[in-house]
Write a structure and sequence with these properties.
Helix content is 77%, strand content 0%. By secondary structure, it is mainly α. It has a domain at 31-104. It is elongated, with a radius of gyration of 21 Å. The termini are close together.
Length: 111
């Protein structure tokens, strides 16, 4: 039963729900994480270019952002892993409870 559930899970939508509490409009398309990262980087670069900073300052600001992202990336990864483990535990407990209910009702458990 869990295999069927995992086959249907769209991790992109699930991550949006976990992050924002809902799926933001226009986010139901199947864009890869790499494409999302490139789009975010492109948007940041566009905003920096619009500030009309001199080239060196622009590069220094980019370095600051890159350092910040490097520092917080592992934190978000850890939070995602924790959320995934908690979700998995809830699903496994639910699966165990369903099997127990089926066994007490005299039904054969699903494989």
């Amino acid at each position: 039963m869990l295999d069927q559930l995992f086959d249907r899970v769209d991790l992109g939508v699930l991550s949006e729900v976990l992050l924002y509490g809902e799926v933001p409009e226009g986010s139901t398309d199947s864009v890869s994480c790499e494409e999302k990262l490139k789009a975010a980087e492109g948007e940041m670069q566009k905003q920096l270019d619009e500030m009309d900073l001199e080239r060196r300052t622009n590069e220094e600001v980019q370095d600051i952002f890159s350092g910040f992202q490097a520092n917080i990336g592992p934190i978000y990864f850890e939070l995602g892993m924790r959320a995934g483990v908690r979700l998995y535990r809830v699903l496994v407990e639910g699966e165990s409870e369903i099997i127990k209910q089926q066994q007490t009702a005299g039904e054969a458990p699903e494989a």
